[in-house]
Amino acid sequence: MTIHVETSRAAQLKVAVTREVFVANAIQEVFDFVAAEDVLPKILTGYGMVPGVASTSDVSGPWDRPGSHRIVQLTDGSTAHEGVTHYDRPFYFAYRVSDPSFALKHLMGEARGQFWFEPANGGTRVKWTYTFLAKNWLTKLPLTLFVKSQWRGYMDVCLANVVKHFAPA
């Protein structure tokens, strides 16, 4: 019974947002680009109060292997830890973000990102869900406001950059 209660509490502290986009390219190529070890500075360029990604460092292993982790360095000098949790080429990629050195550290315990890829009309449908786990009930409201006003736009810019990468020159 206690496990169920804890699971329910954790579920109630989640703040999630999902975005979708169509990319006019083959599923394998889109997956390989989005899940690549070096992609973050190319697609996470910033939005509003959310800085872009400058680089990654301290990669522990091949980025196509669950358990590999790295440090993500943002353009404002802050950092976060990121680790691969699932890698099922070309359909599913998931990761966990923890230990941010910026203001979100006061609001979140961790975050999880999930990408699904499926063939669609001569291209690929990409679905991205990002789920924050608020530290507690008091932080859930400001975290929800941040996700709705800033993080959603950050995700939209990222997906637009993915589409732009595959657009004809």
Automatic annotation (TrEMBL):
SUPFAM superfamilies: Bet v1-like (SSF55961). It holds the Pfam family Polyketide_cyc2. This is SRPBCC family protein. It comes from Mesorhizobium loti R88b.
